[in-house]
């Protein structure tokens, strides 16, 4: 079930994140990129699984230990996040905020993530214009709740 998969992803993430040896071993596994892509798949993964997988991916590609080769290993997962299925209007706000924050970090970290993101620059620019306009149009409490996402989009 998706609930079990989400718990497994969270467990793997907890064992791997911020542990250099564990991270190196995980990244070198041929199944690692496939595992993350499967956990991010909007067609089959639950919101909980997608959220936990996105958190794990973000930790892997933006950690201090991450190398350019590591970011390239997870290129397909990053490209999956750089799409409507994570950044569009219909996506859960917390997932959308986490996704744009990750892309923003990859764009500025100088470890090669920018080259992956630039593969989707036209789509991301169009999405960014739409999201910024939508977020700026919000009023009151809705605007306050969306402020972090708006900041990420404007920085991106």
Write out key terms for the chains shown.
156 residues, mainly alpha, globular
Overall strand count: 0
Mean pLDDT: 91
Radius of gyration, taken over Cα atoms and rounded to an integer in Å? 15 Å
How many individual helices? 11
Distance between the termini: 35 Å
Overall geometric form: globular
Account of the protein in words:
The protein has 156 residues and is mainly alpha-helical. 77% of the residues lie in helices and 0% in strands. It is built from eleven helices and no strands. Helix 3 (32-40) runs parallel beside helix 6, helix 4 (47-62) runs parallel beside helix 8 (93-108) and helix 10 runs antiparallel to helix 11 (140-155). The chain is globular. The model has no long low-confidence stretch (mean pLDDT 91).
Summary, kept brief:
This protein is mainly α and 156 residues long.
Write the SSE topology.
Blueprint: H1 2-16, H2 20-28, H3 32-40, H4 47-62, H5 68-73, H6 75-81, H7 84-87, H8 93-108, H9 113-117, H10 121-137, H11 140-155
Helix pairs in contact: 1-4, 3-6, 4-8, 8-11, 10-11
């Amino acid at each position: 079930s998706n609930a079990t998969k989400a718990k497994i992803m969270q467990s793997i993430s907890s064992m791997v994140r911020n542990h250099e040896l564990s991270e190196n071993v995980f990244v070198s596994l041929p199944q690692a990129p496939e595992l993350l892509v499967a956990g991010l798949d909007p067609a089959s993964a639950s919101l909980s699984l997608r959220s936990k997988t996105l958190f794990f991916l973000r930790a892997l590609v933006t950690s201090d230990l991450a190398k350019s080769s590591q970011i390239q290993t997870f290129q397909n997962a990053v490209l999956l996040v750089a799409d409507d299925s994570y950044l569009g209007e219909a996506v859960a706000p917390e997932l959308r905020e986490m996704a744009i924050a990750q892309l923003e970090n990859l764009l500025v970290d100088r470890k090669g993530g920018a080259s992956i993101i630039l593969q989707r620059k036209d789509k991301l620019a169009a999405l960014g214009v739409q999201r910024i306009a939508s977020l700026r149009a919000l009023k009151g409490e809705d605007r306050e709740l969306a402020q972090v996402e708006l900041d990420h989009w404007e920085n991106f």
